[in-house]
Fold these 2 entries.
Entry 1:
Amino acid sequence: MHQTRAKDYSIFTILLVLAIAFLSPIFIVLMNSFKGKFYISDTPFLFPNGTTFVGLKNYTSGIAKIDFFSAFGMSLFITVCSVAVIVLFTSMTAWYITRVKSKFTNLMYYAFVFSMIVPFQMVMFTMTKTANVLHLDNPIGIILIYLGFGSGLSVFMFSGFVKSIPLEVEEAVMIDGCNPPQAFFKVVLPILKPIAVTVAILNVMWVWNDFLLPDLLIGTEYKTIPIAIQYLKGGYGSIDMGAMMAMLVLAIVPIIIFYLTCQKYIIEGVVAGAVKG
C-alpha cells in the first residue's frame, strides 16, 4: 500500500515538474508582454511592478506596427482551408488505398509513409522553384503545398483507423443502394470523426505556427502572423521586445483555445484507435 502511494507521488511529482517546464516559457512571455521594452532584457523573470508595468501599451503598439488583424485574417484563411483540404482528401485517399488491395495502392501507401521521413530542407528549394513556375506562390497555391506536405502523416493515421472499421458496414449500405462516394460520406466519414479531429488539430498547430513555408512562397506580399511578427525587428539587430512579446501572446491564444476545446476528441481518437486496432 505504502509502495503504491510512494509510486503515485513520484509519478505526480515528475509530471508536475514536466508541466512547469513546458508551461513556464508561455508564462514568461505573457508576463513580459506587460513590461516596458527596456526592462524585459534586464528582469525577464520578475513580475511587472510599478516601474516596469505598461499595461496594454505593448499590445496596441504591436497591433499597429504589424497590421495584426490583416495578418490574423491571412493566417486564419490559410489554416482553415489547408486543414479542411487535408482532412477531406487524405481521409478519402486512406479509405481507397485500404479498401482497394492492389500493387498500385500498396505503392501509394508506402510513398505516403516515405514522405514522412524526408526532411523539408531537402526539397524546399526545388519546391519553391516548382511553385513559382506553376504560379502557386499565393494564398491559394500554398494550400495545395500544405496538402502535399501534410498528406503523409494524415494518410498514415487515417489508414490505421479505416482498417478497424468492419467491411460489413460498408457492404450493408452498398446493398441498400449507396454508391462508393455515398458510402464514404454517409457511413465512413462519420465513423472517422475522432481521428479526423485529431488529424485536424495536429495540422492546425503546424500550419498556424509555420514560418518557413509562407516565407519561401508568399513572403511579404501576404503576411501571416509568424512573418508579420518578424517585422518588429529593426535595423542593426534592434528588437521591440515588448511589442513582440505581446504579439506572441496574441498568436498563441487562438491555438491554445482551439486545442483545449478539441482535446477530448484527441483522447477519443487515441482510445478508439487503441481499442479497435
Entry 2:
Amino acid sequence: MARGSEFITLEDGVLRQVVGPNSRHLARMESAYDVDLDAPGGGIRINGSPRDRADARRMIESLSAKVEQGVEITDDLVIAILRQDRRGAAATGGVLAFGRKGAITPTGLAQSRYVDMMTHCPLSFGVGPAGTGKTFLAAAYGASLLRAKSVSRLVVTRPAVDAGEKLGFLPGDLNEKVDPYLAPIWEALNEVLGPEQVQAHRDRREIETAPIAFMRGRTLKNAFVIVDEAQNTSRMQMKMVLTRLGENSRMVVTGDPTQIDLLNPRDSGLSHALRILKGVEGVGVVEFAAEDVIRHPLVERIVRAYDADGARGGT
C-alpha cells in the first residue's frame, strides 16, 4: 500500500508529553503501527500507509486529549493504551485512569463503550449483572476527573434499600451507615487517588456519600455524580436525583434491573428511566451481559442460569 505523510499540529506543552523523554513515546508508536514519526516543531509528522497513519493519528489524538485533561503521559500509560488498542478497543477509551498499580483500562468492548460514553454524555446509564465493572469504572473515572480538577466534587448516592435492610437500623453516623455498601467505590477511589488523598478529599467535602433522600433540594454544580444500585430507586426518587444536575456536572447511573429489592418491582426508577429517556440527546446507555462479567468464570455461568430460569417463569 502506498505510503504518504500528514502533520498533526500540537501546542508545545502537549507535544512534549506526547513525544516523551528522548522521543520514547514516539518510538513505541512507530513500532506498534509501522509508521515513521518525527516532531520538527509545532506538531508531529506521520509517514506510512493510510491505515497505519490512521491508527497512529488516533493514538496521538488520544494522548493529546489526555494531556489537555491534566493526565501525565507516562511510559506505563502509553504501553497500556497500545496493548488495549491491539486487542481491538479504540485508543480513546484505552486507559481510564492511572492508579497506584498502573493503568486502569477497560476490559472488552462493553467496558470500552462505557468509558467512551461517560466521556461524551452528561448522563450515562451502565446496566447489567454484578461483576461487569460498572461501579468500579464509574468511580475510577470520577476520581480521575477530581484529580485533574475537571470537577470540584465527587458525589456518590444510592437508595437506602438493600436486600430488605434499612440503613436506619444500622449503628453509627451517616457515613458509617453508607460506607459498607460502597466497597467498589472506595476500592476504585483508593486505587486512583490513594487512601490518604481520599480521606483528605472527604474531609474537605470534595467526596460525598449519601442516601438518595439526602439529594432532594440540591443542585450539584461542577460535580461528577454516581447513582449506584439505581434499580432500587422509586420512579419519584429517580426523577428527583436526575434533575439535581447543575452546570458543568455529569452523572452516571448504575444498576441491575434483574436485582430489584423494592416491594413493588414495577416501581423501579431505573427501569422506568431507561424506557422514557431512550433516544434523548445527551443520554447514553450501555447494557452489560453475562459474557461481560469479569469475576470468576463460574459467576458468568451462574448469571446465565438465573437468566434462563427467569425466561422460563422461575417456577
